[in-house]
Specification:
By secondary structure, the protein is α+β, with helices and mostly antiparallel strands. It is built from 9 helices and 16 strands. The protein has 2 domains: 114 residues, no CATH class; 183 residues, Gcn5-related N-acetyltransferase (GNAT) (Aminopeptidase). It is globular, with a radius of gyration of 21 Å.
């Protein structure tokens, strides 16, 4: 088992976890009492619990050198872990977390009873489509130490997203304009989410009814027509199978507090997981927005061109394949 995951910063607390894995080839294997199974090549997600601590359990999975004790141990001899989600001290049940993933389109139980010997679930190993980004959720911390959550926008986020839009200043809106900023737009977005076309990522604070969106970032999967034409004129053809366009925003009260820097590692992991290897800036960045340009350079973006709208803008691109 190879791993592209990391054991750093894993919580010691007990809780739930989800392993995202890629299986490179069709594989036949014997899995304990389940007997012989055949799994086609593809992406899989396994939901488990660690009552004695997440760090020790996940480190064991990532090493892949322990005895074959659980069903997942057999699969990890063949699959690559691409990301780990952790839910320390989770109040929800392992089976509920598993069922939530199965609610996504084009997901299916990979093997009946896999990882479900002690519950009534049909199985805890789920085959997921390649377009589904991983992770769906990730904790992060601001430089102040304050915890935030980075996740995909959900259908039940319409009211939260509307509050976020309505709270943006005119100055922030002027620098970020992929769509209007009102409740009707938030309602329409949350009613028609499609990660195959657009990754809509939010950073939030709080939880439950108090959860608040503090950042909203878009990655258009593929090449936008206007971006494609500009880059073609620069002699930089953009492959729609490997390119995405980034449009980030942060709530005014949370700007200059490290929110975007906390979100970017998760955002890049999500983008890579759906095959994106290059990110361009959605309609570039305004030339006098020096703070934003410095932030993009920090994350590997380089200036490759200039263009005029009502103001001068810079085109910047980043390679994220590593």
């Amino acid at each position: 088992m190879k791993s592209q995951g990391t054991a750093r910063d894993l919580p010691e607390a007990p809780g739930l976890y989800r392993l995202w894995m890629d299986l490179p080839t069709d594989t036949r294997m014997r899995v304990g009492a389940l007997g012989e199974i055949v799994l086609p090549a593809g992406r899989y997600a396994y939901t488990g619990s660690a009552r004695r601590g997440l760090r020790a359990r996940i480190q064991r999975h990532l090493r892949g050198d322990g005895p074959l004790r659980w069903h997942i141990d057999y699969l990890l001899r063949h699959a690559t872990v691409i990301h780990v989600e952790t839910y320390p001290d989770a109040e929800q049940a392992e089976c509920a977390l598993n069922a939530a993933l199965l609610a996504w389109p084009e997901t299916a139980i990979a093997v009946r009873r896999f990882g479900a010997s002690d519950c009534r679930c049909p199985g805890h190993l789920i085959r997921t489509p390649r377009w589904m980004p991983a992770p769906l959720y990730a904790p992060a911390r601001l430089p102040s130490g304050e915890p935030i959550c980075v996740r995909l926008l959900r259908p039940d986020d319409a009211e939260r997203l509307g509050r976020y839009f309505l709270g943006l200043s005119d100055r922030t809106k002027a620098r970020y304009g992929p769509h209007p900023f009102d409740q009707a737009t938030a309602d329409a977005i949350c009613a028609s989410l499609d990660p195959r076309d657009m990754l809509r990522i939010v950073a939030t604070t709080g939880g439950g009814d108090d959860e608040t969106i503090i950042a909203y970032l878009l990655i258009k999967v593929g090449v936008r027509e206007s971006d494609g034409k500009r880059y073609a004129a620069l002699g930089i053809p953009l492959d729609p199978k490997e390119c995405g366009a980034l449009a980030p925003s942060v709530a005014d009260a949370w700007q200059n507090r490290g929110v975007a820097s906390a979100v970017m590692p998760v955002l890049i992991t999500m983008a890579r997981s759906v095959g994106i290897r290059r990110l361009v800036l959605w309609d570039g960045v305004i030339a006098d927005n020096h703070l934003a340009q410095g932030f993009y350079r920090k994350w590997g973006f380089v200036k490759v061109g200039e263009f005029d709208t009502s103001v001068l803008n810079f085109d910047m691109i980043a390679e994220i394949s590593a």
